[in-house]
């Protein structure tokens, strides 16, 4: 980036005084722009860059920033940042808020850094150390690029903002285009027209998806109701192609929104319908339209105004998944998805303890779906013949007991994973699974005799 392009045109004494008051912030900005883990700057180089940036405010040949003054201030700042005192903690937090990282230094040979640099006369070279490393940023960007919900413009918008978290110098080394090219992108579902961003300055005005997420988030934060038009996939009449169209355009769902969370690669809204307490799940990518529900309110002068309609309080069915943190209620998505692993909620709460026979390999699937609060034991079943794993070794079977599982969820899970584990209790649930598997077999047998 050219220094000439970054100059500010300070023209009066007040602005010059402000410039001197904020010179430490300017130093932080220079370090974030020009340094990184591979490139550090000396005080002399920092001073030169600052004087180049603000040369337009000079009234004489004298430099606006003095090297000796900056050295003293940097020395005091670094000492403060490495101090274990409350002042040091305050400085570290302030720097993190202002820049998204920290300032550190190393010796000219690059070996000694941080508070370990003791030798007098050793030239310090300062650099910006971002909170997130390049590998962290790359992982986050890869996750964004892999999303099947986002258009290319939406991905570029988010990555451009994520990129701000790393130093400008290091960002130049990271080719965002390569991130896109080398990511195995899954197919993105069809969207309503006009979903792409036209530029990245105001995404909420142009991006349907990001606008929906922001609206729902605001409603959750402020305890508002929302109106939702939900989409459904169906066959387009006369074409034989899949069509995505509104399911309830004539009658929007009136919902009390409580949380958004990810589960198994899908982004969900958990909410209740206006007059019900049982929660329901809505896929964010299938919401065609959403807005905060407004209602009329009469004020003191008799006038009627439209205000956001308040949502219902958190219902008893959801209350166990919310925990107080400071002044907010925080949703425990892990506990929630452990209870509803397939994101299915049934009208009747019918919990049971169930037991699966599995191997140590298929145990991973159980933990992924129900969490790690599982009791393990020896299997009581004698296998009539020896089964081998992929390495040709005998399989080792064990039992895994899960407590408080919705019966229907357990039965669905047992059928879905019947090739890798077996439901062995309770007996009535085992019989239900046997009956359903027999019905599946008979249906296929009748269709393909």
Using brief descriptors, characterize the structure shown.
449 residues, alpha+beta, 4 domains, six-stranded antiparallel sheet, 36% helix, disordered N terminus
Structure description:
By secondary structure, the chain is of the alpha+beta class. α4 crosses α5 and α14 crosses α15. 21% of the residues are buried. It has four domains: 3-130, no CATH class; 134-181; 203-338, no CATH class; 346-447, Alpha-Beta Plaits (2-Layer Sandwich). It is 36% helix and 23% strand. The strands form five sheets. Strands 3, 4, 5, 6, 7 and 8 form a six-stranded antiparallel beta sheet that branches. It has a four-stranded antiparallel beta sheet with strand order 14-15-13-16. It has a two-stranded antiparallel sheet with strand order 1-2.
């Amino acid at each position: 980036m050219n220094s000439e392009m970054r100059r500010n045109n300070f023209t009066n004494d007040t602005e010059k005084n402000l410039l001197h008051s904020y010179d430490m912030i300017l130093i932080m900005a220079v370090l974030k722009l020009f340094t990184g883990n591979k490139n550090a700057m000396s005080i002399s180089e920092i001073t030169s860059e600052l004087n180049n940036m603000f040369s337009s405010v000079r009234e004489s040949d004298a430099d606006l920033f003095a090297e000796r003054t900056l050295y003293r201030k940097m020395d005091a700042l670094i000492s403060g940042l490495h101090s274990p005192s409350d002042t040091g903690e305050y400085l570290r937090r302030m720097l993190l808020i202002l820049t998204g990282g920290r300032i550190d230094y190393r010796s000219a040979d690059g070996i000694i850094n941080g508070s370990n640099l003791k030798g007098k006369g050793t030239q310090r070279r300062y650099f910006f150390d971002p909170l997130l490393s390049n590998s962290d940023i790359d992982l986050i960007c890869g996750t964004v690029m892999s999303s099947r919900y986002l258009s290319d413009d939406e991905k570029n918008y988010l990555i451009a903002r994520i990129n701000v978290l790393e130093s400008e110098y290091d960002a130049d080394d990271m080719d965002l285009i390569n991130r896109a090219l080398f990511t195995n992108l899954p197919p993105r579902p069809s969207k309503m027209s006009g979903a792409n961003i036209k530029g990245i300055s105001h995404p909420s005005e142009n991006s349907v998806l990001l606008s929906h997420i922001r609206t729902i988030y605001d409603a959750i934060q402020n305890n508002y109701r929302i109106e939702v038009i939900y989409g459904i996939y169906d066959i387009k009449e006369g074409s034989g192609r899949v069509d995505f169209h509104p399911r309830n355009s004539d009658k929007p769902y009136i919902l009390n929104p409580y949380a958004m969370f990810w589960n198994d690669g899908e982004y969900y809204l958990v909410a209740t319908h206006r007059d019900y307490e049982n929660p329901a799940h809505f896929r964010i990518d299938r919401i065609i339209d959403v807005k905060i529900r407004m209602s009329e309110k009469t004020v003191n002068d008799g006038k009627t105004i439209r205000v956001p309609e308040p949502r219902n309080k958190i219902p008893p069915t959801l209350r166990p998944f919310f925990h107080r943190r400071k002044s907010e209620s925080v949703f425990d998505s892990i506990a929630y998805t452990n209870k509803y692993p397939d994101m299915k909620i049934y009208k009747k709460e019918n919990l049971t303890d169930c037991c699966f026979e599995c191997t140590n390999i298929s145990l991973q699937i159980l933990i992924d779906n129900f969490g790690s609060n599982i009791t393990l034991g020896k299997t009581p079943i004698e296998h009539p013949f020896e089964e081998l794993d992929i390495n040709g070794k005998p399989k080792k079977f064990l039992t895994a007991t899960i407590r408080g599982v919705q019966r229907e969820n357990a039965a669905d899970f047992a059928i879905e994973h019947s090739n890798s584990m077996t439901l062995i209790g309770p007996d009535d649930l085992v019989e239900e699974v046997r009956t359903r598997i027999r019905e599946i077999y008979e249906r296929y047998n009748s269709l393909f005799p």
